[in-house]
Structure formats: structure tokens, C-alpha cells
Amino acid sequence: MEKQRNNAQITLDTVVCAKELAIVLGLTTRRIQQLVQDGIFEPVQKGKYSLTKSIERYIGLITKEATEPDRQRETAEIEIKKAKAIVAVMEAQELQGKMHRSEDVAAMTEDLIYTMRGVLMALPGRLAVDVTDVSLTSEAANIIRKEVYKVMGELANYKYDPKKYEERVRERQNWGMMNGREGDDE
Fold first, then answer.
1. Which residue, 23, 71, 77, 80, is most buried by CB atoms nearer than 10 A?
2. 49, 15 in Cβ contact below 8 A?
């Protein structure tokens, strides 16, 4: 066991053993050994440590550990702000008609498909009388071909209508009511 120091003054050069360092820092001897392994404390001799340097390094360690949650919180807040900014940009692009949500595109495509389905389903009824009036199959084929080309022409002439997408967006987001009120204020 270490002998007690009577009237010993602590100086910048004071050297202590691991047990004494543990007592001063309020740690266990095992924790001191772990900190030595981690490179926080450096022995000046075998089993002996500079008291002032060890305290300085330990304060640096606990200060770093104390600020780490703050850094994590700040990083998380920055990530949240970035995400909110991205969402705001996307919403602005959506309102400007520069970007569309997949569900809006799917709904508009579905509308187009149902329109084309209706036109195609009506085709046999429209052609039945015309085709039965002709005697040659080649004439019937020409009549059917012309009608099919008309349907294909309608499909080819289908154009993107930003107003329809805007209506869907406003309807989805219940902005139609807000838009009406904005017009009343102007």
C-alpha cells in the first residue's frame, strides 16, 4: 500500500498511482485502466500518472462526451430542417405544375384509359350498321380501319393539360376552398 503523504503539496509535477488518480477523479481503478488503454491517460512511469495532465485529459474527455448529445441533437435538427426545405420545394414545384405526385399521374392516366375504353367499346356499335351495308370484306376492313385511325388520332392528340392536374392537386389538398377565398380578397 502506498504510504500517505504528509503535508504534501500538489504541484504541476505531482505523480500519483492509479488508485490515487481514481480517488481524485471519483472513478474505479478499473476505469482508470480502461482510460489508459484508450489512450486518455499516459503513464509517466509504470503505474504512475501525472496528476495535472490526467485531470486535464479527463476533463477534456467528459466535456467531449457531454457535448456529443448536443451535436447529435443539432445534427438531427439540421436534417429535419433540410427535409422540411425539400418538402417545401417539392410542394412549390407541384403548385407550379413542374412536378406531379404519382397518384395524380396515375389518376389522370386512368381517366385517359377509361376514355379510350369507352371509345373502343362504342366502336362495334358504330361500325355494325356501316359494315353490314357493304358487300365486300375489303370495304368492311377499310371502314373499320378508318374508325380505328380516328381513335388512334384522338389518342395521339391527347395533350397534357396543366389545369386538370392543378384541379386534382387542389382537390386532393382541399385548396379549392382556399383558392376561392383568395379571389374574394383581391
1. 23
2. yes
